[in-house]
């Protein structure tokens, strides 16, 4: 482990132990370096690294603070990496969605307020009878985002939102090239909505699995054809 890694680990431990809490300002650089037994240059590199993943917020002329540490903020670093992924890696993202999203949907069937479930119906109705593929995909992302939030688990919701948003290009591509996708997607959304409304957690999870697996299988077939 490098000296910089030691510094990162030391700061992380201070946060984990509750010595530094969200919003707290870090001690002055020379004081913290002396306390941790590190060089100031190593500490500076550690702070820079932790600021890149939004654990720390360096405010010029003010100091360095622990961020809110909200899951959505910390997931930004994952989003940055995902933006560089190619189609075969998007497939892995869809695989991850197929594992994670049904769990969020199952939890939402139990915890999501009925008013929010009814709001999902209004969201689907807002598309009208003949939405474009782009409108459908945007609606789809919002549909799944709300369900993930309905799980009551902020970390799970952030994961779903990150994975869902970063597969938008693949879903748009599918909508433009595969016949009947708009109707099929809306039908699957309506089925998930109905299961949520009836509080059928297992059925809602199974429907979510089938829904995500459809995009995944299409991409698998497409990649095979391209090779």
Automatic annotation (TrEMBL):
PROSITE patterns: HTH_GNTR. Signal peptide: none annotated. Residues 1-69 form the HTH gntR-type domain. The keyword DNA-binding applies. GO terms for molecular function: DNA binding; DNA-binding transcription factor activity. It comes from the Bacteria. Keywords: DNA-binding, Transcription, Transcription regulation. Pfam families: FCD, GntR. The keyword Zinc-finger does not apply. This is FadR family transcriptional regulator. It comes from Streptomyces hoynatensis.
